[in-house]
Amino acid sequence: MKYTKLHTVVFSLLLLFSGILSAENNLSLQTQILLEQSQKASVMNDSDDPELVHLFLVVSDDFDRSSLDTLNAFIESDFGTTVTLTIPIQQLQSLTQLKNIEYIRVGMPVKPRLNVAVPEIGADYVLQGTGINRPFTGKDVIVGVVDFGLDFTHPTFINNNGRLKISRCWVQSERGGAPQGFSYGREYVGEAQLLAKQYTNRNISHGTHVCGIIAGSGAGIYSGVAPNAEIVFVETGGTDSQIIDAVKYIFQYAESVNKPAVVNLSLGSHSGPHDGTSLVDRGFDHLINQFSPGKIIVGAVGNEGDLKLHIMHHFSSATDTMRSIVRINPKTPDTEVDIWGDANTSIDVAIEVYDLNNNRMIHSTLFGNTSSGYRTERKWTIEGRTIEVKLSSIARFSTNQKPNIEVRIKNPAHDDYGVAILLKGKAGQRVDLWNIGDGYGEEFHELPNTTTTGWVSGTSEGSMGEVGGTGKNTISVGSYITKNNWRDLNGQSHAMAGIIDDISYFSSLGPTVDGRTKPDITAPGSVLVSSVNSFDSNYRPNGTNSQHLTYQQGNHYYAIMQGTSMAAPMVSGAVAMMLEKNDRLTPDEVKSLLKKYSVQDEKTGTINENGSNSWGFGKLNIYDIMRSQEINLIPQISNLRIAYNPATKEVILQTKEEYNGDTIFELPIDRVQFFDITGRKLLDLKEVPDRRIDVSRFRTGIVIVKVFVGKEHAKAKMVIY
């Protein structure tokens, strides 16, 4: 699954102060700085009206609250292991000496930043309410995250009232206590259960990092985009069907508490048709339509922009044979290739094995055709190493009527011997192939120095992934660079290749097979600092990723990662802000706003109305979206107009919403039905792309038209003549 490839790298900040902390106390950096200031203040200021500090304490069950009395400290709110405290600044040093305090974090003003990323998209102004009627922080919005590895105990997930921002979690791989309406996994609800659970996966930090980008407090330094959003987390079991279940679980909960929701999917694969018709994308479409407006899915477009993992080939004639060597990752000598043809066609497929040192074919299979559901399994042992190929095909995939071929290759001899896939089809027919690799993609390449025709290499075009990068109702996010260097905890400088403000080299490219622009938008995704799992041994000063650590908050850490996994939660946080202002926005409306107010600059170049398959429609700009008038407009089905044009014998659906003469939103039509006056169904359409319906085959007379938009429908009666 994706994009735990992560392209993990790390970014840093700040000085560490020594000589202040006692061994048994853990302080945030801001507390350390303030503590140093308090030591000066205790010498310089003995006023009867001391400066007060407001902070959080996380304490053990054995903490003696009465010990605060001698410090003139006052507990404002008490939530068990977390309290908010007001204390004179001169007493801060004494506070650090008390027993059973887990950590101390000074309350921070509302101007959070995730390094340079939050200001980059204009979110800092939105959080402060600058130029808007009030601040927007994601309050009363559910942020669902489907991922791996969340640390419930990390202080970044404690809000200003001392409460945990995470309200519930479903661990799909555990047993006992499944959520209502599901038969597997275990649900944890409420602060006590979550803190007792501590984490979902000890040695994975991806989910902790993603959640921190969306909604973390970030020790006042690395604040997420929507820090007051409510987090619902699903530790996925790792299959795409379980991801569908996860999104349903989140939407159901949001509906039950009457709140809008945005779900972040920093996951993916390359198994699927990449045209919006996969079972996953269709599942998302269904969920969007099943629930009330205000339910949005945001996905990472993929981290394979530098891999030639896709082949798109048009056959020039019936004798045209396409050939390509399937590259294998040396660390995982298995790969899978997913192949799709045009709807209602068939493909001939065969396998050949080549001696790469001598550029000659040494083994082959006969061609088989998808129309018969061709399958084969072959093994060749060469110099003691066995190459295995399993091939299976489907004549017509149910959601799109396309032929599909899946090939699994095990090739421990890949350095010396290559497995090639051969395809044939009719003139003009198109085929698409993706080399899935170990989940993160691998490449296709030609056989060098050969006179045989038909050899093709892969391309990075069309490298967007399934799950987050192909859906029609999914907002797919690419990555660009806002920072390319950092300092680790030891003060060592590190740098990444890349030009500030330019596209990230790894950000996957569109278009989809059906020609849609992907990604939809780009956001900062390179060298982003966020929280990491405190139980993950890889992210400790002596861990394998120690150079990525940038800041320590007690026993908790912040580190850099990069990938579209990090860009997607930037957009999810922005969408949470949008939903706080308008809780009935639909995916189409969110996309329209992202498009209209996106930033184009010298790095993006001029992007036309069809978008760019690197940049989408530009860079995320949440500030101008939140200042706009359009975000307050809610398209109503009552504004739908249904007309009949007798000259062309067409029924026309006028679905556009306009503002100042510009088309802002267009109502998404889910279904159109026609009935005669007896109630007999004449026509049932699930797609009306151009909003025009040919009714020339209808008899003259009265017909009834029903147009469905989500759970609502409009009805009209008209005369056909």
Commentary on this structure:
The protein is an alpha+beta fold. The protein has three domains: about 115-305 and about 465-625, Rossmann fold; about 310-435, Jelly Rolls, CATH 2.60.120; about 635-720, Immunoglobulin-like (Sandwich). Helix content is about 15%, strand content about 30%. The chain has eleven helices and 38 strands. The strands form nine sheets. It has an eight-stranded mixed β-sheet with strand order 7-6-8-5-9-10-23-26, with helices on both faces. A six-stranded antiparallel β-sheet has the order 11-21-13-19-18-17, with no helix packed on it. Strands 12, 14, 15, 16, 20 and 22 form a six-stranded antiparallel β-sheet that branches. Strand 2 and strand 3 form a beta hairpin. Helix 7 packs parallel to helix 8. The two termini are about 55 Å apart.
**Count of discrete domains:** 3
CATH homology-level superfamily of the largest domain: Peptidase S8/S53 domain
Report, as a whole number of angstroms, the end-to-end distance. 56 Å
Briefly note the CATH topology name of the largest domain.
Answer: Rossmann fold
Uncertain runs are 1-25, 107-116
CATH architecture of the largest domain: 3-Layer(aba) Sandwich
The share of residues in extended strands comes to 25-35%
Query: How many helical elements?
Result: 11
Gyration radius, in Å: 28 Å
Work out the helicity level. 10-25%
Q: Biggest sheet, open or closed, and with what strands and sense?
A: 8 strands, mixed
Total strands: the figure is 38
Mean pLDDT: 85
Descriptive keywords:
Immunoglobulin-like; Rossmann fold; 721 residues; alpha+beta; disordered N terminus; single chain; 11 helices; 38 strands; Jelly Rolls; six-stranded antiparallel beta sheet; globular
